[in-house]
Amino acid sequence: MSFAAVCRSLLSGLAYLVQSACRNVTSIFAGSTLAIAISRIYRATLRSRFSAVTLVLVGGIIWIACSNKAVSVSLHGRSPISILVVSPFSISTFPMPTILQLEEMRAQIVSLNATLARLQQAQSNRDLDSVGKADFALYSAGAKIISSYTSQTLRSALPQSDLWPTGPTMALHHETHAGYCWPFSGQQGRIGIELTHRILLESVTIEHLPGALSLDRTSAPKHMSVWGLVEGTDNLHRAITWQERGRVLGRRKHFALELGDHPPDVQRLLKASRWAPIASFVYDINAPSAVQSFTVDDDVPALDVDFKTVLLLIHDNWGNEDTTCLYRVRVHGRPAAMRD
Length: 340
Known about the structure:
Low-confidence stretches: 69-79
Number of strands: 12
Number of helices: 5
Order of helices and strands: HHEEEHEEEEHHEEEEE
Number of domains: 3
Strand content: 15-25%
Helix content: 25-40%
CATH topology of the largest domain: Jelly Rolls
CATH superfamily of the largest domain: Galactose-binding domain-like
CATH class of the largest domain: Mainly Beta
Distance between the termini: 98 Å
CATH architecture of the largest domain: Sandwich
Radius of gyration: 42 Å
């Protein structure tokens, strides 16, 4: 016997069982007389058609069960529209959203896409610069070292290269891999920087090698201060007014009035021109991040002077008596053209 014949026999048997079940149910709930009548009608006129319908139904059930399929039918009616899902052993109905709900969902998706785009742009900016602020002391953007304001460089073990700057310019470069720093002798030093633009100073960032990448960080700078060179008639008038106000209030040391705690060469440098103290801070090698930013002192915003030249003084380091290494210094602020 062929496979097709076997399937037909099985389907015929299943059809007979279904028909028998229908007659039994009818006999129970409708009485024997109605059951006999239905049986006669079935034998007389509907047997062939009913058998065909039964075969189709049974075949469909077997196909759904064997193929693990689900049939979805849309029911059109009053809002909200529902979806009827027929699976092998269950029937479920799920409500469909209304037109208003779909519009609200669309608006939410548009808002989420815009937020995602902003976050991706912010992440891209941070990938370019971990601080997320413009660096006006960046060598590749045009910042320069002022040699007359800068300490002598200690001989470096790094090979000379035309691709990378050497000497104090290394502290203005974005490269901060192990050993790529500006070294100078002893614990005290200074570096003069000509910024890319005249700016209203807001903060300074110091970077050293992370602890996970270095076994000895005692050469990292510790106590530091930043000074700005006051240039131009308007800036000079603002600075003098700021200086007198600070002297009356006794808030701080203004300009080079009290420099007894600085080395003689630094005192001579600061007294030779109008230098304004901008910030004093401590770089902490035990902090979670090796890139640390420091805002200007509280009264500096009232100074309202734009600077083109800044001086970073390094007063000591974390214990190395022979060498201090400055990996990178960044200067942040607003261009003078953006003064309120």
